[in-house]
Write a structure and sequence with these properties.
The protein is an alpha+beta fold. It contains 8 helices and 20 strands. The strands form 4 sheets. Strands 6-7-8-3-9-10 form a 6-stranded mixed beta sheet, with helices on both faces. A 5-stranded antiparallel beta sheet has the order 13-12-11-14-20. Bound molecules: adenosine-5'-triphosphate.
Length: 359
């Protein structure tokens, strides 16, 4: 592991986007799809742009790799500005590698030749050594002679990763890399690919609409909504301290329940008071984020809710509970406890404070 002298100034971010605006020219005029987007990623970090379909994630990746002109702002790689609205360094000069969702392996080339494809100008011995090292890094050392159609989806994905890493890109971009794999494999492979990128000391940006993938792979995540990053942070903070109601709704399961600030630092919910997460205006109702793990079953609790839906989730059950007002909340219950549909269950809150947003 490389250690940094703590008194040395922080180096330039490896990738920096400042107030970037991007759009497409339409017959009706310019259609802006990304606006005022800024981010900074340091060397060796894995960042992620996470957001719903159409929010502009792929457009940002194309701008970083040099295939989308900027309408405003700038992009810098390792402290060097590579794009502004007036000038743009050619994609092949940026040393940015891209790995797409469909792997795009060459079907007529063996695994080894696929991985070595970007190294054709290197001397044969150096090229062979690099290919061997990469195949071993991605756990495919014995499969170099196979052809893509002989491999599983996960294996093809590893070959695609080795091929993208081969020319030692300054930055690796991963565009929805797991979307063609089934859900179980996706999360496992995301974790494995994270380990490989860390081992290779690569700096990478992943784009995805899948939160599990983002959480399994990224060090830091930017949640995008309609062309803007609405929150940038670690998975834990996005989950527990969402900055907006949109982030709260997009990340993890949960329900926004109505609440009313009492004026003395707490918020009144239908089933009791919670501490306000910070200064909350008393003039107006709020919505409070309640995650399934915020509620506990408690037979002695005076707060009663009716069980209207119950799903087995392996480690436990996910209950949908209807409160007397008719609003519904989710509750994660640890194991079978004999509750039946329609039962009235005593519940209580696990935590004293929950995120709140203006109603
Ligand atoms: N070539 C294009 N011409 C015109 N509009 C485009 C073009 N490419 C994308 N768009 C529009 O720009 C917006 C952002 O698209 P983009 O592909 O960046 O989103 P995304 O978040 O990557 O979505 P997805 O997850 O579905 O790939 C969308 O409204 C899309 O319709």
């Amino acid at each position: 592991m490389r250690l940094r002298n703590p008194s040395a100034p922080m180096p330039h971010p490896h990738l920096q986007l400042d107030h970037v605006r991007l759009g497409y020219r339409m017959p009706t005029g310019m259609h802006v799809v990304v606006d005022d987007l800024s981010l900074a990623l340091h060397e060796g970090r894995i960042g992620c742009l996470l957001g719903p379909s159409g929010c502009g994630k792929s457009t940002v990746l194309r701008a970083i790799s040099g295939f989308e002109p900027l309408l405003a702002g700038s992009i810098a790689l390792h402290g060097e500005v590579v794009a502004t609205p007036r000038r743009s360094l050619a994609p092949e000069k940026r040393r940015v590698g891209v790995m797409f969702q469909d792997y795009a392996l060459f079907p007529h080339l063996s695994v080894e030749d696929n991985v070595g494809f970007g190294l054709r100008r290197e001397p044969a011995a150096a090229r062979a050594a690099r290919v061997k090292g990469l195949l071993s890094l991605v756990g495919m050392a014995s499969l170099g002679g196979k052809y893509p159609h002989e491999l599983s989806g996960g294996q093809q994905q590893r070959v695609a990763l080795a091929r993208a890493l081969a020319p030692r890109p300054e930055l690796l971009l991963l565009d929805e890399p797991f979307s063609s794999l089934d859900v179980d494999l996706r999360e496992r492979l995301a974790g494995e690919i994270r380990d490989i990128l860390k081992e290779a000391e690569a700096t990478a940006i992943l784009v995805t609409h899948d939160q599990a993938e983002a959480f399994a792979m990224a060090d830091e995540i930017g949640v995008m909504e309609q062309g803007r990053i609405v929150q940038w942070g670690k998975a834990y903070d996005l989950y527990h301290h969402p900055a907006t109601a949109f982030v709260a709704g997009f990340i993890g399961a949960g329900v926004l329940v109505p609440g009313r600030p009492t004026g003395n630092g707490s918020i009144r919910l239908e089933f009791g008071d919670i501490d306000a997460p910070g200064p909350v205006s008393t003039n107006g109702d709020v919505r409070v984020l309640l995650r399934p793990d915020d509620l506990l079953a408690d037979a002695d609790s005076p707060i009663r809710a009716r069980l209207v839906h119950k799903v087995f989730r392996g480690p436990g059950y996910l209950y949908t509970l209807r409160l007397p007002s008719g609003s519904e909340v989710l509750a994660q219950m640890p194991r079978e406890d004999g509750h039946r549909m329609g039962d009235e269950i005593g519940i209580r809150l696990r935590t004293g404070s929950l995120p709140a947003f203006p109603a």
